[in-house]
Amino acid sequence: MKGKTHVAVGILSCIQASIITNKPLSPLEFIFVCICSVLPDIDEPNSTLSNLVLKPSVSKALYRYLIYLINMLVLSILTYINKNLLFNLIISFFIIILVETKLNHSFLRKSLLTFLFVVLCFSLYYVKAPNSFIIICMFIGIAPWLKHRGFTHSILGIAFIYYVLYEVQKILNSDNLAFYGTLSYASHLLLGDIFTKMGIPIFYPISNKKISLGFIKVGSAIGNFFEILYVLIFVGIVFYSLKLF
Question: What is the pLDDT of residues 132-174, one digit of tens each?
Fold first, then answer.
């Protein structure tokens, strides 16, 4: 499902849970709900959360400038070694083609995302921030290199997020942060991606088999229609619950 659909489902699920359990949803917890609703897709370098951290236009521009820089360096080195300009241009042309086959935009983007969060980890460690915050940054930094819809889309991933959020909850002195954050994260999997055609490996790493309970193809016209209908159904359930309680 699309990022905005995951956010909507995550928020509505937590509002519904708040109505049923009578546990208030604070503004801080609401922020974590929004983040956790798209957090499982952090293993995708072009996810909603990744795009907030590093806009695709920025990474594409950096990639283009890097290719230009490599091209200039190669040509400069060849010119220093050999004075034959035509020969140097031909050799540099083939070298750049070779570089572009190995260094693509996706690889550079993942590297930049990892670099940003590694720097953040060291910064947090330097200021003696709680370990739970450092663990979150490490996880987000490593995630782009993981297989899409692997660990982050499993029960093990849900358990990991609950553990980290529970530690954060104690630090921020929040009552229900771990509950709502984990619920929002789980909604991404169990109320979202499991109904797509691709499915999710819910029992990873015990089994890599992806379980699917639906047929929605993300991005298709039919898929977009069902996502809108899906969100409207959740809205209806929430309004109906408000009348009952």
Answer: 888 888 888 888 888 888 888 999 999 999 999 998 898 888 8
In-domain check, residue 159: yes
Say whether both 154 and 232 belong to one domain. yes
Residues whose CB is less than 8 angstroms from the CB of residue 56 and which lie 6 or more positions away in sequence, other chains included: 46, 109
Quote the number of domains for the chain: 2
116-140: average pLDDT: 88
pLDDT value, residue 244: 66
One domain for residues 154 and 240:
yes
Could you list the residue range(s) of the whole structural domain that residue 177 is in? 3-44+149-244
Q: Where are the alpha helices (DSSP H) in the chain?
A: 3-21, 27-38, 48-53, 56-81, 85-102, 105-126, 131-142, 155-172, 177-190, 221-244
Which single residue is written with the structure tokens 């907030």? 52
Tens of pLDDT, residues 25-71: 899 999 999 999 999 988 888 888 888 888 888 888 888 888 878 77
Alpha-carbon distance of 112 to 103, in angstroms, equals 13
Asked if 143 and 64 sit in the same domain, the reply is yes
Q: What does R_g of the chain's alpha carbons equal in angstroms?
A: 23
Sign of CA dihedral 161, 133, 26, 239: negative
Answer with the one of 94, 112, 147 that is the final residue of a domain: 147
Tokens of 118: 């590694």
